[in-house]
């Protein structure tokens, strides 16, 4: 199955599973919050303004802002920039809501990103526009911890991601949770992985990069 076929199939499934959405949102938020608690020195968190068929962590923003500085993507040309989350939100391209533009420059410690699915390497399958891929390619500082979220389990056993595609450190959905082993020299992420590897409800993605 090629990547685009996988994308179309999973997107159709997501749009058909809008019932009981709040429960799915809360289950994913619980797991994401556990990961964030393990990131002792991480303060700048990138979340997203969700579409109807995406996990909604935005509704928990008031809880997150007690401990973290919250940022969201802002579409700029064919890439993204990071802006501080603030009201009011305007509806932009592809039906995405965004805050006003800002010129604040900051480092992101953790990026929480929606997916339509992932491959066997936890490579992201998104909407095919490449916004996140180009954003990550242009990051000049240490790459942030990447958490993928989704309302259902859509992990493929195939590998169809390319080198420029984002790879997640974690893939969280309401039913299963996966993490990707990282290089040993990344001590911070290795420590977080080690902690969750001891939990029985986590499934390790055995595919190596």
Descriptors:
Rossmann fold, 5 helices, globular, 209 residues, alpha/beta, disordered C terminus, single chain
Task: Describe the overall structure.
The protein has 209 residues and is an alpha/beta fold. It has one domain (3-205): Rossmann fold. The protein contains five helices and twelve strands. An eight-stranded mixed beta sheet has the order 3-2-1-6-9-10-11-12. Strands 4-5 form a two-stranded antiparallel sheet. Strands 7-8 form a two-stranded antiparallel ribbon. The chain is globular and about 40 Å long. The two termini are 20 Å apart. Mean pLDDT is 81; it is low at 200-209.
The coarse silhouette is globular
Number of strands: 12
Assign the CATH class. Answer: Alpha Beta
Structural class: alpha/beta
């Amino acid at each position: 199955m090629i990547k685009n076929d996988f994308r179309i199939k999973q997107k159709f499934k997501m749009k058909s599973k809008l019932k009981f959405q709040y429960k799915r949102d809360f289950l994913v938020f619980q797991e994401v919050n556990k990961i964030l608690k393990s990131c002792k020195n991480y303060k700048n968190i990138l979340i997203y303004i969700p579409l109807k068929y995406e996990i909604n962590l935005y509704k928990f923003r008031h809880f997150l802002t007690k401990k973290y500085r919250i940022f969201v993507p802002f579409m700029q040309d064919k890439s993204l920039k990071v802006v501080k989350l603030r009201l009011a939100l305007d509806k932009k391209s592809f039906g995405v809501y965004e805050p006003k533009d800002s010129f604040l420059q900051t480092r992101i410690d953790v990026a929480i990103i929606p997916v339509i699915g992932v491959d066997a390497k936890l490579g992201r399958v998104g909407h095919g526009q490449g916004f996140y891929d180009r954003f990550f390619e242009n990051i000049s500082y240490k790459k942030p911890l990447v958490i993928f979220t989704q309302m259902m389990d859509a992990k493929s056993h195939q590998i169809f991601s390319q080198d420029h595609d984002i790879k997640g450190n974690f893939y969280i959905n309401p039913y299963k949770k996966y993490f990707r082993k990282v290089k040993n020299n990344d001590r911070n992420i290795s420590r977080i992985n080690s902690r969750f590897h001891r939990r029985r409800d986590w499934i390790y993605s055995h595919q190596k990069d």
